[in-house]
Amino acid sequence: MTTTNTPVLHPGLTPAQRDCLDPLPLTGNHVISGPPGSGKSLLAAHRAMHLALTGRPTLLLSRSNLLRQLLCDTLQGLTVPGAPVEAATVHGWVLRHFGYGAPRTQDGWFDWTALTHQAAATLGENEAAAPHLVVDEGQDLSPGFYRLARLAAASVTVFADECQRLTETNSTLTEITDALGRSTGRGEIAGNHRNSREIASLAEHFRTSGTRPEMPFRSGALPVVRHYSGTKELADDITAMAARHPGDRIGVIVNSQRMAADLMRRLERGGLAREPQLYSSVASSGRYRDLDLARPGVVLVHRASAKGLDFDTVVIADTETDTATDPTAASLRMAYYVMITRARTRLVLGWQGSRLPRHLEGLRGWVHTK
After folding, report:
1. Helix/strand/coil (H, E, C) string of 25-58?
2. Alpha carbon distance 349, 237 (integer Å)
3. Residue 15 is inside which H or E element, if any?
4. Interatomic CA distance for residues 204 and 215, integer angstroms
5. Do the beta carbons of residue 338 and residue 332 sit within 8 Å?
6. Which of 94, 41, 49, 48 is nearest to 69 (CA)?
7. Which positions are tagged coiled coil (predicted)?
8. Whether the predicted pLDDT of 192 surpasses 80
């Protein structure tokens, strides 16, 4: 089994991304941090391909099923014969490894302490089958998961950004490193290859911690804060955007499932050139579960599922749902930091009601207001 570095240079990586990826040993645990747009998901896929060349089973994990679908698409373009990598959710991996009777806590999520005890009891029994795990958006998983992974995997590589912790069971970079052990390597990747300078600048207004990332070189239109009289006007505006930019992927991010359902009905009747797509985490299969994220058109997603995705145009549809939230709250600021940085070229922050939401006040210079 190969344990020394055997870098595979696939097209599409920048020199900085290669400099981050190539020195990583094919053994041990590693945590790589970087801001939105730095290419963490792409690097995670490349890292998984490198590890698969050692001959061990290799899994590319995410908490989000929608992100898993995107990672599957990425892996298809990186396939090396004889070195398969599987993209899976953490939920799916745990059920496969521990069975459908895996212990859970009262909130329905896994009991990481109990699972860690189970893994410790069988440690070393089938070491050759222990997989390499690569985790994307690793800040969305608890330290308990990483203590389990440390025992159940041959190696763990985590790509994360602690400024994007949206789940209730999340981890800081320090917590991930501590859970994986003192010998865990740390690395960073800089740069923003997704957003325009104007979109990245607005995102900075909502960033909660860390050093200021390097601003993108590419410039574009200012983001727009737009008032809508109702859902019909919102749907009409999205339909008009799709008509003006027929080659774009337009992501509509909502905080309300009711809003998502209402918008979907209106968009389906609105004469779009391509059928709109809606992702629902409660759907087990079918059109609301399995999406084609690569094709142009409109995709509706809840903000909880937006992590790791990107679109040419993003519409944050119902910012008024955050009116009662303290505009300085870290959870709110992280949510908007994530949603804003999904946009490559155009961004609209929509609101309804009689008063501009407090967290959208004071943005003069960063946005146009309509």
Report:
1. CCCCCEEEECCCCCCHHHHHHHHHHHHHCCCCCE
2. 12
3. helix 15-21
4. 10
5. no
6. 41
7. none
8. yes
Q: What is the rounded distance in angstroms from the CA atom of residue 24 to the CA atom of residue 9?
A: 13
Q: Find all residues with CB under 8 Å of 357, minimum gap 6, and list them.
A: 319, 320, 322, 323, 351
Report d(CA 115, CA 120) in Å as an integer. Answer: 9
Q: What's the rounded Cα separation, in Å, for the pair 220 and 288? A: 33
* pLDDT, tens digit (0-9, with 9 covering 90-100), for 70-86: 999 999 878 677 778 99
The single-letter code of the amino acid at 257 is Q
d(Cα 180, Cα 11) in Å, to the nearest integer?
31
Bridge partner residues of 294 (DSSP): none
Residue written as token pair 């696939």 = 10
pLDDT in tens, 273-322: 999 999 988 877 778 889 999 999 999 999 999 989 999 999 999 999 99
Which residues on neighbouring strands pair with residue 316, listed in sequence order? 253, 349
| Per-residue pLDDT, 4 | 45
365 burial (CB, 10 Å; 0-12 / 13-18 / 19+) is exposed
Return the closest-CA partner of residue 1 out of 49, 56, 77.
56
Single-letter amino acid code for the residue at 353: G
Sign of CA dihedral 22, 25, 27, 31: negative
Q: At residue 23, what are phi and psi to the nearest 5 degrees?
A: -75, -10
